[in-house]
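User: Here's a structure from my thesis project, written as structure tokens. My advisor, Dr. K., wants to see whether a designed sequence matches the one we expressed. Can you design one independently, without my sequence as a hint?
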């Protein structure tokens, strides 16, 4: 089982990730992790914090000479802005200063519920950890998971399909082409025309002191049939993927395949008909069975079915507005405008990178659950035997 924990505050000295369960023999370098961290900081509409931070990962344990050695992997990401916060966020009691307490909760954020739950009088104790800055640590963990998956031909990518009501138009006939187009886009959009309009609405929102959300789509290819299970609720692939996506800050909805559209269509228009042709194995498929449509998004009965995985998530607008909404001061109980923290106008492209990361982690987890071994060579033997089994089915 692959599991991980993150630690660190938004303006603390660093973010930390510890990953346990990675087998030995996976090729991994800090450059691979840094590449994903740079993608997370990318995107039109990001705020001033991205001008300060240039996220780099330091591998502290679990990797020797570019290869995992099966011990826990520890990663750190330094917060460059810490130099401006070392007294305000110091763990030492002599720096306590009640006069700088944040007492005006932002609507839509963890602020108010957090101070009520943990009995805080300073909202900073909540916002520092609930901040989306934490997702840098998850992207680092996702990069490690990607390294394992790519060893077995499983690739994860995605695109931004909508921002502020502007939807991209694209087909999924060639996911590689989509990923290539996205790599050249400031908004990770596969549709250049839609991207121009997305930038326009972002600019308008910024000038109005407002924020925008959108829809992201994660795709994965090379997954064999049979990851996940129908035998218990918590072993279902779709259930765990949905939980992973919903755990990302600001995500308010998840769908798989055509998702909510299935509720509006008859079964004859929803379910993917099954075909069999031995020749498709030669074209890279894991099994001779295939479907001409993929409304299910690659998952049936809580298990992967061999088709590409298609997942979408809806991200709400960021709660920090430069034209603040009304709130109530938790100290004086007087009405005020909410606190303004440094923030983005639109972070949907960053959310895509985080979504890819958590999806990669869950796929890797299910992959190890089914084919697990202590080394890549052992997993390869287990996986090869399974592929031979399903090819004969």
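Assistant: Designed independently from the structure alone:
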């Amino acid at each position: 089982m692959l599991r991980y924990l993150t630690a660190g505050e938004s303006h603390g000295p660093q973010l930390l990730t510890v990953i346990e369960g990675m087998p030995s023999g996976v090729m991994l370098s800090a450059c691979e992790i840094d590449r994903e961290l740079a993608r997370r900081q990318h995107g039109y509409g990001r705020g001033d914090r991205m001008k300060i931070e240039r996220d780099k990962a330091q591998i502290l344990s679990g990797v020797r000479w570019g290869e995992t050695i099966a011990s826990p992997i520890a990663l750190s990401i330094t917060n460059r802005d810490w130099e401006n916060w070392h007294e305000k966020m110091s763990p030492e009691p002599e720096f306590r200063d009640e006069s700088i307490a944040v007492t005006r909760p932002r609507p839509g954020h963890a602020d108010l519920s957090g101070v009520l739950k943990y009995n805080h009088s300073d909202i900073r104790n909540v916002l520092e950890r609930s901040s989306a800055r934490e997702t840098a640590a998850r992207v680092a963990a996702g990069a490690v998971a990607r390294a394992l998956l790519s060893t077995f031909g499983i690739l994860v990518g995605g695109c931004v399909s909508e921002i502020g009501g502007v939807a991209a138009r694209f087909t999924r006939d060639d996911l590689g082409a989509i990923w290539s187009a996205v790599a050249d886009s400031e908004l990770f959009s596969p549709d250049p025309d839609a991207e121009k309009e997305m930038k326009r609405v972002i600019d308008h929102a910024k000038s109005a002191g407002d924020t925008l959300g959108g829809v992201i789509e994660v795709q994965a290819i090379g997954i064999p049939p049979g990851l996940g299970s129908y035998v218990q609720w918590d072993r279902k692939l779709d259930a765990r993927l949905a939980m992973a996506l919903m755990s990302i800050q600001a995500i308010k909805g998840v769908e798989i395949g055509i998702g909510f559209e299935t509720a509006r269509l008859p079964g004859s228009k929803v379910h993917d008909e099954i075909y069999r042709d031995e020749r498709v194995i030669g074209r890279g498929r894991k099994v001779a069975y295939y479907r001409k449509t993929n409304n299910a998004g690659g998952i049936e009965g809580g298990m992967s079915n061999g088709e590409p995985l298609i997942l979408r998530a809806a991200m709400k607008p960021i709660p920090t507005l430069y034209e603040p909404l009304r709130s109530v001061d938790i100290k004086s109980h007087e009405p005020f405008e909410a606190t303004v923290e440094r923030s983005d106008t639109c972070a949907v492209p960053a959310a895509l990178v985080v979504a890819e990361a958590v999806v990669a982690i869950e796929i890797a987890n299910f992959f190890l659950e089914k084919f697990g071994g202590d080394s890549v060579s052992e997993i390869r033997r287990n996986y090869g035997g399974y592929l031979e089994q399903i090819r004969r089915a």
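When you compare it with your expressed construct, this may help: The chain is about 30% helix and 20% strand.
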